[in-house]
Amino acid sequence: MIFLKRNSHFKFRVPMARAGMTRNMKKRDMIYPVGLVRWTEQRNFEAVLDLLAQGKLEVKPLISHRFKIEEAVDAYELVSSGRQPYVGIILTYQDPAHYQAAAPEGRLGTLQGAVAERATTISLKPDSALAPATATIGFIGAGNFSGQVILPALKQTGARLKTIASSGGVSGTYLGKKFGFEATTTDTDQIFADPEINTVFITTRHNTHGTLVREALRAGKNVFVEKPLCLTLDELQEIKAVFLSGAVLPVVKPAICLIRHYPRF
Fold first, then answer.
1. What is the total count of domains within the chain?
2. Mean predicted confidence (pLDDT) in 51-66
3. For residue 264, what pLDDT is reported?
4. What are 109-119's pLDDT values in tens digits?
5. What tens digit of pLDDT does each residue of 186-223 get?
6. On the CB side of 188, how many CA atoms lie within 13 Å of its CA?
7. Is residue 75 in some structural domain?
8. Fewer CB within 10 A of the terminal residue: the chain, N end or C end?
9. Ordered alpha helix ranges (H), the chain
10. Strand-pair partners of 63
11. Which domain holds residue 182?
């Protein structure tokens, strides 16, 4: 890097390593040769794991907080609120034998098996007494964009926030408590089957939008979906077919609104 005198222009060059892999390379289990790219993502991870195994990389000073997995919501609240400084946060689990004992016979003897047997829906507060004509929201997705942009705006509308769904349950529970939802779930069918919910927001991964939009329309819900509506022309045709068919429950066709976010730079 070369710096010139004050009030003069300066030029610099930054070499960029091709550390990432294309989707096709990942599918074919390919990796850049060492002679072309020394430090790929995979080699970075392998080097760090090797250093940890040899005791040459000390990470304990980076751990500022520890939470039991049952207190994961508190960990998320710490990160999002900024109420105190943090560096590394560890979620601790009980001995694997605990989860194996908790799994019924015939189920996976793991944490996954134990969690699978738990109720997928949690009530956060009593049911609302709002009139049936009020917009009642089922929200699918609990990522950063949802928590920082969509939900704060939705909260101000006065709509009834009924149920929020997330894949793991932790982020959904946290956002559900923060924005006043009545329940949180890991089962999107709970939202589609709820007769009180008349509007569904979809802010999940792009590859799930098409399927979720179709299911919401079949259930007769108004749909607000974060871009894109779907990924392929075939999915678009399927959505169109559901929307125009008699599969949609109400006599009045539900509406579809595509949410587009334009960040400020």
1. 2
2. 89
3. 46
4. 444 444 444 44
5. 999 999 999 999 999 999 999 999 999 999 999 989 99
6. 21
7. yes
8. C
9. 23-27, 41-53, 72-81, 96-102, 111-116, 144-145, 151-155, 170-179, 188-193, 206-218, 233-244
10. 88
11. 121-125+134-259
